[in-house]
C-alpha cells in the first residue's frame, strides 16, 4: 500500500518532470489540485496519516493576540522570547534546545500579547519530520508569525521555511483570493469571470472541479490576476490560513555591514542582535504595527476617560465589538455611542453599533 507521503512525492516528481507550456498547463493544474488534497489528508489525524496528527501544542490562548516564533534550530527564538518577556526559555548552542511550546507575555501599547516560543523546525517538517507538524499547527493559530532567521546562514533558509508553511496551507502576507465558490445541489457548473483572467480559463476550472467531484457549483472569479493556485486555495479554503509574517534576521553582530544592509532592505524584514541588544525594540514595535490592534478608551458621562486602561480590539472592529469587550450583555441596553478621535467625522460623533473604531478613539456608551 502506498502511503500519502509517497503519493505526494510521486506527484511532486511528476510536476518537476513536466515541462511548463500551453499543452501541459491543464495537466499541471490537475496535479496541483491532487497535491492539495493529499496534503490536507496528511494533516488529518487517523489511519494512513502517517505519524503524529496535526494538533498543536497544548497552550491555551491568552491576552489580546498571539505571535508564533518560527525558525530553524538555534536561530535565537528562545533568546528573543527571554529578552522581550519575563519568561525564561532555555537557550543553548545546540539544536532542538526547545522541545515544546513555551508561552510568554509581551506587554505593549496597553495590550498583552502572547508570544509562543516553538521548537526549531527542519526541512520536511510539513511531512512530519521532527516536531514539525506540531510546530506548524501551533503557528497556524497565531495572529502573526515572526520568522526568526540567522543572518549568518544562507539565503535559502527563508524560502525553505516558507515552503514548509505553504505545504500545510499557511499563506503568508496574502489576502484570500477574490474568487466566489458556492457548491449547489443541482444545475451543473456555472463559471463566470468578471474580467478575463490572464492565467485561468473555464476548461482549467472545470477540470479541477470535476476532479474534486464538485459537479454542481457556482464560481465567480473577480480577480484578473487569479492563478490556478488561488483557485485551489478557494476550493480548500477550510484548510487555508492567511497570516501576516514578519521576517526577523537575528545575530547581525556576526555579519558584514554590506550584508546587513542587503538584509535590512528585504520587504517585511527587521534585523537584530539579541546578544548586543541591537534592534530588538524595533522588532517589538514592528510586531505591534503588524498586529494592527486598536486601543479604545471608554468614558463615562461627565468624567474624563481613563487613559490608563485601554480596551484592545482587532482592526476593523465596530462599536458592537467594543461593547462585547466591556460586557456580554451591554449590547442589549445600547442606545447610541459618542465617539471622539480619528474615526469620528466631528467630535463627539453620535454613532450606532456598526460604526468602525480607530486606534485611540474615546468611546462613551449611552444605555437605554
Ligand atoms: N552571535 C549571536 N548569537 C546569538 C544571538 N542570539 C542568540 N544567540 C545564540 O544562538 C544560540 C541559540 O540560541 P537559542 O535561543 O537557543 O535558539 P533557538 O532558536 O531557540 O534554538 P532551538 O530551541 O534549539 O530551536 C545560543 O548559543 C545563543 O546564545 C545573537 O544575537 N548573536
Ligand atoms: K538552540
Ligand atoms: Mg529555543
TrEMBL record:
Q: Name one GO molecular function term.
A: GTP binding
CDD domains for the chain: DRG
* Residue span(s) of domain OBG-type G: 65-292
One of the GO biological process terms: positive regulation of cellular response to amino acid starvation
Give the TGS domain ranges. Answer: 292-367
Q: Which Pfam families does the protein's record reference?
A: MMR_HSR1, MMR_HSR1_Xtn, TGS
PROSITE patterns hit by this protein: G_OBG, GTP1_OBG, TGS
Against Gene3D superfamilies, the record matches this protein to: 3.10.20.30, 6.10.140.1070
| Superkingdom | Eukaryota
Record keywords: GTP-binding, Hydrolase, Nucleotide-binding
PANTHER family named in the record = DEVELOPMENTALLY-REGULATED GTP-BINDING PROTEIN 2
What is this protein's record name? P-loop containing nucleoside triphosphate hydrolase protein
**Native species of this protein?**
Periconia macrospinosa
